[in-house]
Amino acid sequence: MKIDRLIAIIMVLLNCDKITATKLAEMFEVTPRTIYRDIDTISQAGIPIVTTTGIDGGISILPSYKIDKKFFSPEDIQSLLMGLSSISTTLPPSELVGIKEKLKNLLPTEHTKERLLKSNQITIDLTTWMGNKKFIVTLEQLKEALNLNTLIMFDYYNLKGSKTNRIVEPYQLILKESYWYLQGYCTEKNSFRTFKLSRITNLKLLNSTFVPRNFTPLPLSGQGWIDQQLIPIQLRIDASLLEKMIELCGEDHIIPTDYNTFIVTFPFVPDDMGYNLLLSFGDKCECLSPPDIRKEFANRIKKLYSIYTTQLPL
């Protein structure tokens, strides 16, 4: 196919300083006239082709269009490919395929197979087993808005479930702890705000652009709200929760007992999210102290129990 030959010719030109039309014709088993037509097509696509005549003449790509292979080490390219593979688990691959192929082309021939193998040895898959299938579409819409400086409008639900309509200037997408966030300037609040993408619905790109403001990314460290609410609580957990607790608070806060259970000093925020997290551990976890947290947790369990013991209306 012609498109395959065009791509192959570009790769050859990127890999060499200069090559004759005759040599290219031999490589692709076509006539020199066909090669010249292909070169003309490549030039029309915006790739700066240079042709010279004479004994040392030939076809080449403008040197400033190339990246010296020595600029990136094989280890650098391996790391970049690994990162791109991880990004591709949350974004459509259409934009990434070409980038990955270009990076592979920068690898010295003797290192290609080895580095490609190693780049696949670590994969960061950020997708969920189940989830909102429209989420990727939302990300693509936001990427477009970011690229074009387009105002967006959406409905936003807060922690209590209240819905507001927002018009926002988008500035940055952030992935933190498997959750996506959008940072932008809210025209309603007249300030920069952080929005959790899972709470955004009915997203629309408006037919209006904006002049970017001076933007400094807002911290997502929890300072100013979560750190002021954190209190240590004591949990007794079953061994089946050990791995989860190590992820959440580290081994230094976990002490084994003689009964195949563990005592955990757990950083806890006494709000709905905090108590819902404890409830998610089921009967494999017991809150031991402080007494007020244990009492409130028990009250929430009673309310949940009452819901399921109340007979449904016929």
Written description of the protein model:
This protein is an alpha+beta fold and 314 residues long. It is 39% helix and 25% strand. The chain has eleven helices and eleven strands. A five-stranded antiparallel beta sheet has the order 6-5-4-3-7, with helices on one face. Strand 4 and strand 5 form a beta hairpin. It is elongated and about 90 Å long. The N and C termini lie far apart (67 Å). The model has no long low-confidence stretch (mean pLDDT 81). This is YafY family protein.
The total beta strand count reads 11
Radius of gyration (Å)? 29 Å
Structural class: alpha+beta
Percent strand: 15-25%
- Helix proportion: 25-40%
**How many DSSP H or I helices?**
11
- Can you tell me the number of structural domains? 4
The main β sheet shows up as:
5 strands, antiparallel
Output mean pLDDT: 81
Q: In one word, what is the shape?
A: elongated
Query: Gap between N and C termini, in Å?
Result: 67 Å
Q: What is the H/E string?
A: HHHEEHHHHEEEEEHEHEEHEH
Low-confidence stretches: none
Q: How are the strands of the largest sheet arranged?
A: 6-5-4-3-7
Keywords: Transcription, Transcription regulation
Protein name: YafY family protein
GO molecular function, one term: DNA-binding transcription factor activity
InterPro entries: CBASS_pafABC_assoc_protein (IPR051534), DeoR_HTH (IPR001034), HTH_11 (IPR013196), PafC-like (IPR028349), WCX_dom (IPR057727), WH-like_DNA-bd_sf (IPR036388), WH_DNA-bd_sf (IPR036390), WYL_dom (IPR026881)
